[in-house]
From TrEMBL:
The keyword Transferase applies. Keywords: ATP-binding, Kinase, Nucleotide-binding, Transferase. Residues 278-299 are annotated as: Disordered. InterPro entries: Kinase-like_dom_sf, Prot_kinase_dom, Protein_kinase_ATP_BS, Ser/Thr_kinase_AS. It comes from the Bacteria. ATP binds at residue 48. This is Protein kinase domain-containing protein. It holds the Pfam family Pkinase. GO terms for molecular function: ATP binding; protein serine/threonine kinase activity. Signal peptide: none annotated. Residues 20-261 form the Protein kinase domain.
Length: 318
């Protein structure tokens, strides 16, 4: 979720919503403020509260309908909601730590293998959403959080849409564009709503190019060169960024191709420390052209002991 803003609760906001005690403000979503809440058993959640001046209450209802499904570990978990309360709210998984934009800005770009791993997991989550007829419509680096396990998670479904529902919402207003323009598919930004799913694919491709190069889509002259990324990763990313949406692969196909590039099943690491070590060492190794050499068994044991000792001393700094 967004960074902790350190704000106190505003006047008029109930200190308890449902079974959750509100602790502090976290940030703002598409349609409301987000607070850190705590259940009676100590479980912490992110509680989104609808803006009192928001006249589009139906969007909040739709977000609950979207989040109530089970889409795997790459999609933020939904816990509870009360849309009939005087202060409508939604409780969802609380994800402390960095989003992907912050990760790239603070630690540098990801190695190719890690880009492929992130792509595999996010494409898999997106495929689950698309199978359920749900399009996210606002994919961007700040809406990708990193779990403590190092795995990426899609958040903020304030603009998501159930494409199987009757077209009574903003899909009927073809001139109204929702989302964040910099990360939008070109046809979607122009009002073409014929394929929400392939628009999501474009946004995911743009996110992964940024993660691997540090270049924003607004820097079009550099962005589409994909400097520093080799084949076949570049080939897949270019397909996801195709100007013709019909030429973009579906999410499930992207997930399979990323899995092959990632080495099938490798993760970002079993801890934040492991993840950061992999990301930083991978970037340095690729820039220097060095190749990893497997140590002998005795050396491997010594190296493992050294790393355990090092992590035990530095884990609080990660």
């Amino acid at each position: 979720m967004p960074d902790d803003l350190g704000e106190s609760l505003p006047a008029g906001l109930p200190p308890v919503l449902g079974r959750y005690t509100l602790l502090r403000a976290l940030g703002a979503g598409a349609m409301g403020r987000v607070y850190l809440g705590q259940d009676q058993d100590g479980t912490q959640v992110a509680v989104k509260v609808l803006k009192t001046d928001d006249i589009e209450r139906w969007r909040f209802d739709r977000e609950v309908a979207v989040l109530s499904g089970d889409f795997g570990d790459a999609v933020a978990k939904y816990y509870d909601a009360d849309l009939e309360a005087a202060t409508p709210w939604i409780a969802m998984e609380y994800l402390p730590g960095m989003n992907l934009r912050q990760r790239v800005e603070r630690k540098g770009v990801l190695s190719e293998r890690v880009v492929a791993t992130v792509g595999m997991r996010l494409a898999d989550g997106l495929a689950a959403l698309h199978r359920a007829k749900i399009a996210h419509r606002d994919l961007k680096p700040v809406n990708i959080m990193i779990r403590e396990t190092g795995d990426p998670v899609i958040i903020d479904f304030g603009l998501a849409i159930d494409t199987a529902a009757p077209a009574t919402d903003d899909r009927t207003a073809t001139r109204i564009v929702v989302g964040t323009e910099q990360w939008m598919a070109p046809e979607y930004a122009q009002g073409d709503r014929s394929d929400f799913y392939r628009a999501d694919i474009y946004s995911l491709g743009a996110i992964l190019v940024y993660a691997g190069t540090g270049v924003l889509p607004s820097e079009a002259g550099k962005f589409f060169r994909l400097d520093g990324l080799g084949e076949p990763l570049t080939e897949l990313l270019r397909a996801m960024l195709a100007q013709d949406p019909t030429e973009r692969p579906k999410a499930a196909a992207c997930a399979k191709r990323f899995a092959a590039l990632a080495g099938e099943g490798r993760t970002l690491g079993h801890s934040v420390a492991d993840m950061e070590a992999e990301l930083s060492s991978g970037a340095k190794r690729e820039r220097s052209g060095a190749r990893r050499v497997a140590p002998s068994v005795p050396n491997a044991k010594a190296a493992a002991a050294h790393l355990r000792a090092a992590y035990s001393k530095t884990k609080d700094l990660v």
